[in-house]
Amino acid sequence: MSDVTESQGQLVAAQEGGALAPAASAADSMLNFIASAVSNPDTDVAKLEALLRMQERVLASDAKAQFNRARQAVQALAPRVKKNGTIDLGEDKNTKQKRGAIPFATFEDVDAVLRPLMTAQGLSVSFSMKPREGGLMVLAELSHQAGHSEVYEFPIISDGGPGRNALQAIGSGFSYGKRYALEGIFNVVREKADDDGRAGGTRYITEEQKEQIIGLLQETDTDVRRFLSTLGDVATVDDMDQAVFPVAVNLLQQKKVAAARKGAAS
Length: 266
Fold this sequence. Notes:
Blueprint: H1 3-16, H2 26-39, H3 45-77, E1 85-88, E2 101-104, H4 107-120, E3 123-132, E4 135-144, E5 149-156, H5 166-186, H6 207-219, H7 224-229, H8 245-265
Antiparallel strand pairs: 1-2, 3-4, 4-5
Helix pairs in contact: 1-3, 2-3, 4-5, 6-8
């Protein structure tokens, strides 16, 4: 029998024999048992070391269990997040007219919903960035007061929008990455502005597909309203059907390639 197995048997025997007071958890029981063993001058050193290793595992397991319960509680309680931000699509280079704006949920919107729930469950989150090939990686570390933490990663590119310099583009991309990472951790759902009026059975594009369309619209300097009108009954990018998405991407990609060829020839 190993030292660890023997120590586990000692713990069970001590509990059944009433040597230990009832504990709130396995971790509490182990701490009480270790304290008792340390105070006993007859405790074998090797067995004590085995008990300490067992204690570390029990404490780590208990901390992870608390972490998971807290995260599940936040996910169960989190409401849908409203879209209070807008993506400015800039202006047409020829007509100088505004191409409009698209609503989206900001990091602040997500944080305002989740922070009170996280705090109540003993959770906190911190963010950092590290370089990766072709861009940056946002790291979100979710920690619980019991001591367990997990790191989640989300790749980003610098978000170069109208009027942004390189540093502002990185900052915007970082905020974008934080929002997506936090939404992913707790499976946050964003509220559509017209959810209640949407017809049943229609499959609308995902947020990731929406971001792809927006990026291509900006890259190709496309008039949004005119482009959407060519796709049929599509009032906004949010209203784009899954069936229309590949057509929209193909049209924008063709325009992008044509612009690149024209630039190379000039």
